[in-house]
Specification:
- The complex is a heterodimer of chains A (about 260) and B (about 325).
- Helices cover about 70% and strands about 0% of the residues of chain A.
- By secondary structure, chain A is mainly α.
- In chain A, about 50% of the residues are buried.
- By secondary structure, chain B is of the alpha/beta class.
- Chain B is built from 12 helices and 14 strands.
- The chains are: A mainly alpha (about 260), B alpha/beta (about 325).
- At the A-B interface, helix 1 and helix 5 of A face helix 3 and helix 4 of B.
């Protein structure tokens, strides 16, 4: 099991290294949000841009990590279209190890992207000190959540052409409902309720709380919710991997316990 | 139920043992009850047109799809209940590329070695050995995308061999290769089989199936015939002998006396026999007139296949398998 996780992780990180230029290309979107949207909207918000930019910083970081993790997960769909994923599936690696390895690989990539973004924190007037330690912890948890989300969704798709459409239909609503760009405390009631069903909201709230010391949801509740979400998503990915190529059949008797 | 009994049973078992295998996709029955056994060390071909069910059967054996009914065992292990044990002893080449184009050939093999639980050092050593033995040593450290078509398929073969598997599965492994590359690929597979590995491969190229010890002809999810290439062709009444002698009339009479039924074919004699190669030397030695020219035509596997499916098509034919034209467009 451990060997399998390691092998899948090494394989994906090796391929990620070939694509390392993406780390910098991936900065464009979050920096636009941070310095253009942040400066523009911030000037007209009660916080002022000096207060608004640090406020949205964890949200923008969440956005960036969410997209990085999803993009990492797309490799599963791409690998399925060629035969590469089949070669992984016929290896004597327990299916949970494949899921965990894939999630870990995506999480590392998302975390690295988040850390790269962290270098821009001083420019956005983000107060950094010892709070960087809990922040890194929260970022790691967020990275795992987003990666599990990506893997669970990607494992269900056999074509890369429809995956971005579906993932945008899932990702963008989750991002907008998460309170990444506005305080949930002042949002309409229905958004506050929706946020409780949005894993991105918990992740962003934890990162923001770690950074600025103010939580919207109780941190212990966020931790528990994210742990449950990660477990559920990983389990659903394992179920799909267990089916091998029998994906079009719906649930089958072909489970990993047998 | 003790371990020694189990292992003794496993070593005596056929390399591949398929029993009453049925696979349905919704209402479509892709495999309609397949039975076959491949002996250890055998080179076994599954030959049939596109859509015959070859890849479905292959996927079941490769543990990628579960049988709807029936069972399949590889090296004595059940492909569903003992999937990881089956996976650990198989090397598989898919018809689709399964290498990471951006990684070097060597790195591809290393990654595969890690997935199969070889240590990094062992994987490295095995990769070097295999790349050398398949003639890929020079290309090994270039990205795989820079490989030629033939080199890529050989790299796929190398990938399947990293773990030194006892059994090798190849699914349309030479799809899209030119004749030279195909010949070179099969020469290497034959060498692997000669070294004692069991090889199970699917193909729709007649001449590729010829290298097998035995061939299963498959169409529309059923096995139509399973035998050695020679015996399969012998089913058509064997071979065609064309004979030109100094005195055809006398030769004809002489042959008729010995129970053959020669016919005049143009300016020569035509003789159908189950196994011309076996009787021809004897006949020629005793022929009372001088033979000027002898030709032996073997019926091709394609003839055999067309004859078998032709018979079969009269019966129950669901609109399942796409078929080529009358000449078998799916065959080229």
């Amino acid at each position: 099991m451990r060997r399998g996780i390691f092998a899948v992780l090494v394989l994906d990180l090796k391929r990620f290294w070939l694509d390392r230029a993406r780390l910098f290309a991936g900065l464009a979107q979050p920096l636009l949000y941070l310095f253009v949207l942040g400066a523009g909207l911030g000037a007209s918000s009660r916080l002022g841009s000096g207060g608004y930019q640090p406020y949205i910083f964890p949200g923008v970081m969440g956005l960036s990590m969410l997209f990085t993790a999803t993009f990492a997960a797309i490799t599963i769909v791409f690998d399925r279209q060629i035969g590469f994923f089949k070669a992984v599936l016929v290896a004597p690696v327990p299916r949970p190890a494949i899921a965990v390895g894939k999630i870990a690989a995506g999480a590392v990539q998302a975390l690295v992207q988040g850390v790269v973004l962290l270098f821009f924190a001083p420019l956005a007037h983000v107060p950094l000190g010892w709070n960087i330690l809990p922040l890194l912890g929260a970022m790691a948890l967020a990275a795992v959540t987003f990666s599990a989300l990506g893997v669970a969704v990607a494992s269900r798709f056999t074509s890369v052409t429809v995956f971005p459409i579906v993932s945008n239909a899932v990702l963008l609503p989750m991002f907008f409902l998460s309170g990444a760009l506005y305080p949930l405390a002042m949002a309409p009631h229905w958004i506050q309720i929706a946020a409780y069903f949005d894993p991105v909201a918990y992740a962003v709230d934890l990162m923001r709380g770690a950074l600025l010391g103010k939580f919207f949801m109780p941190p212990w509740f966020s931790l528990a919710a994210l742990a449950a979400v990660i477990a559920a998503l990983a389990w659903s990915a394992v179920r799909i991997f267990n089916r091998g190529e029998d994906t079009d059949l719906g649930p089958t008797k072909f489970t990993w316990r047998r | 139920m003790t371990a020694p009994v189990l292992s003794a049973a496993a070593s005596a078992a056929p390399a591949v043992d398929v029993c009453g295998l049925v696979k349905r996709y919704g209402k479509v029955e892709a495999l309609k009850g397949i039975d076959l056994a491949v002996q250890p060390g055998e080179m076994f071909a599954l030959l049939g047109p596109n859509g015959a069910g070859k890849t479905t059967l292959f996927s079941v054996l490769a543990t990628l799809r579960a049988p709807t009914e029936g069972s399949a065992r590889v090296l004595g292990r059940d492909v569903v209940a003992e999937r990881d044990a089956v996976r650990a002893q198989m090397g598989i080449v898919f018809q689709e590329p399964a290498i990471e184009q951006r990684l070097s050939g060597r790195d591809n093999l290393l990654m595969m070695g890690l997935l199969y639980g070889l240590g990094a050092a062992t994987a490295r050593r095995r990769a070097t050995e295999i790349l050398a033995s398949l003639g890929l040593a020079e290309a090994a450290d270039r990205p795989a995308r820079s490989f030629s078509g033939g080199q890529r398929r050989k790299l796929e073969l190398a990938r399947a061999l990293v773990t030194d598997p006892k059994i090798l599965f190849l699914d349309e492994a030479t799809l899209g290769l030119d004749v030279d590359a195909r010949r070179s690929f099969w020469a290497q597979v034959r060498a692997l089989a000669a070294a004692g590995r069991t090889v199970f491969f699917t193909t729709h190229y007649m001449e590729e199936a010829e290298v097998a010890d035995r061939i299963a002809l498959i169409a529309e999810g059923k096995i139509l015939a399973l035998d050695t290439p020679r015996a399969l062709k012998a089913r058509l009444g064997g071979g065609v002998v064309k004979l030109k002698t100094e005195d055809d009339a006398q030769a004809r009479a002489w042959l008729a006396e010995r129970g053959f039924s020669p016919e005049a074919g143009g300016d020569e004699l035509m003789l159908l026999h189950a196994d011309p190669a076996a009787v021809l030397p004897e006949l020629l030695r005793h022929l009372p007139v001088k033979a000027l020219r002898v030709e032996v035509h073997e019926p091709s596997l394609e003839d055999v296949f067309l004859k078998l499916t032709g018979k079969d098509l009269g019966g129950d034919v669901p609109a399942a398998a796409p078929r080529g034209g009358p000449g078998g467009g799916g065959w080229s």
